[in-house]
Amino acid sequence: MDPVTKALNELHRRISGLTDGEVASYIPKLAQADPDDFGIAITSMGGRRYQAGKADTEFTIQSVSKPFVYALALTDLGPDEMLRRVGAEPSGEAFNAISLEPVTGRPANPMVNAGAIATTALVAAADPEARSARILDCLSAFAGRRLGYDEEVYASEAASGDRNRALAYLMRSAGSLTDDAYAVTATYFRQCSVLVTAADLAVMAATLANGGRNPVTGERVVERSVAVRTLAVMATCGMYDGAGEWLLNVGLPAKSGVAGGLIAASPGRFGVAVYSPPLDREGNSVRGVAALTAMSERLTLHLMHAPVHLTATVTDTGHGARSSRTRSPEQTALLNRSRQRIIAVGAQGELEFTETEQLLGAVEGAVPATPGWLVLDLMAVTGIRPGSAAMLAAGLADIAQRGHRIVVAAQEPFLAAADGHPDWQAFTSRDDAVAWCEDRLLAGEAPLAPSAPSAPS
Ligand code: GLN
Q1: Ligand 1 mean position, distance from CA 196 (Å)
Q2: Is it the case that residue 456 has pLDDT exceeding 70?
Q3: Res 310: pLDDT
Q4: Which atom of ligand 1 is nearest to the CA of 259?
Q5: In 26, 210, 316, 366, which residue has its Cα 20 to 30 A from 175's Cα atom?
């Protein structure tokens, strides 16, 4: 058995014994859920899926639909208009609270019912059927399979959903909802009645953790920026009036639902979901909270942990770098006497702020006082963030100012960056880069040609 499944089984076994909490009963049909049902599932960024217990048992998604419908509305409206219509403040209140801002009537929190109903109304569509269809398509794309409805739960909630209708009417009177209140809540009940499994929810959470691309199907479901904002709202608002304590203890964006579903996303790592119907006083799955708390501790998932830098960035700093070119004895002697003049610094991996700052520090420490040729070997660099590229360019410009010639060796895709720096010499191999410097040195050239006098006007 693979180690992830083994760990999930172990976690499942340990937490099964927890029998606190109550199955929700305010939607009559939900009261029939089996309190012993318990499943956990994980989907990795590589699209691999792991599960333990009843991870293939279907249940209604309920409030776990909220972040995904938020992502859909956000895609339709853009960030500014979305925020104008629905806030992003943890209300610290129960899921069915009258959570509207005093003056504007704008719902404060998109992850509790008032804000979620307003969000559903923002999904662009010609009529309620089309809106429900778009929402189902969206949830299905996140899950990577065609999802359906639990008609009985839908009917049960529609028959008992007056509080949600009341919230919608309140928002209409406050001006924050313009659609028909009855129709919008029906659409909202439809969205809550979509059937999922813990395994589905893990893929949905993994899609957010993966920047909006479903890691199983490969489909880009939402833009990266939409995934980031959705995760941010989950982090601050996802756990009702338990949101603050959740961020403190678990430290992951998450969302729970009244049927017992709970998702969490560890950005860049995996999506995880738990299904277990008994809920705590805040309305969050008891076993879900326990499982995620244990997992976060065990795997150090808390968002506020400083990222670990697994590999060294700087691979070498060498004076007297030499190419494989054949040189005459005189040339070899000259190159040997000029060891200080050609310097190579190598780097590997991803260049983010910390790595770039490290690399520039190493370059600073390696360049001599007298002008020479600096070969920056980026052949083993796999990615440079735009901000880091600008930082690197600024650091190198500073070194060039002091009379050094910048010679870059990098893979084709990164060489495009050198185009913006006509004073950099760029090569696709370190050996060619060093050989070019040797040729200049042997020809008696200065590292930097004195800048050409500007043409007389
Ligand atoms: N459909 C449920 C409701 O609106 C969803 C609430 C929840 O999951 N917390 O009452």
Answers
A1: 15
A2: no
A3: 67
A4: 8
A5: 26
* CA 143 – ligand 1 centroid, Å: 20
The letter for the amino acid at 354 is T
Distance (angstroms) between ligand 1 centre and the Cα of 95 equals 7
Q: Is the pLDDT of residue 223 over 90?
A: yes
Could you tell me which residues are beta bridge partners of residue 348?
Answer: 380
Bridge-based pairing state of the strands 405-409 and 425-427: parallel
Q: Where are the alpha helices (DSSP H) in 224-321?
A: 224-237, 243-249, 286-299
pLDDT tens sequence across 205-221? 999 999 999 999 999 99
Q: What is the mean pLDDT of residues 246-273?
A: 96
What's the chain's Rg over C-alpha atoms? 29
- Distance, CA of 30 to CA of 268 (rounded, Å): 34
Return the closest-CA partner of residue 145 out of 206, 76, 214, 223: 214
- Residue pLDDT, tens place only, 409-445: 999 878 777 777 778 899 999 999 999 999 999 999 9
* Percentage of the chain lying above the pLDDT 90 cut: 84
pTM of the model: 0.87
Structure-block tokens of residue 7:
């760990």
Ligand 1 pocket member 33 (CB < 6 A): no
Ligand 1 and 157: CB distance under 6 A? yes
- Nearest CA-CA partner of 85 in 67, 63, 101, 98: 101
Ligand 1 centroid – CA 217 distance (Å): 29
> Exposed, middle or buried, 401 (CB in 10 Å: 0-12/13-18/19+)?
exposed
* Strand pairing category for 342-351 and 314-319: antiparallel
Atom of ligand 1 nearest to the CA of 63: 8
Q: C-alpha 285: how far from its chain's center? A: 24
Whether residue 191 has its Cβ less than 6 Å from ligand 1: no
Residue whose C-alpha is closest to residue 63's, from 233, 235, 242, 255: 255
Tokens matching residue 166 = 């009341």
pLDDT computed for residue 452 by the predictor: 42
- CB-hemisphere CA count at 13 Å for 401? 7
Distance CA 434, CA 321 (A): 7
- Domains in the chain, ordered, with CATH? 3-305 (3.40.710.10), 314-442 (3.30.750.24)
Task: Report which of 336, 397, 323 is spatially closest to residue 363, judged by C-alpha positions.
Answer: 397
Protein residue whose Cα sits closest to atom 4 of ligand 1:
113
Enter the tokens of residue 55.
Answer: 């991870």
**95-130 pLDDT, tens per residue?**
888 888 888 889 999 999 999 999 999 999 999 999
Burial of 147 (0-12, 13-18, 19+ CB in 10 A): buried
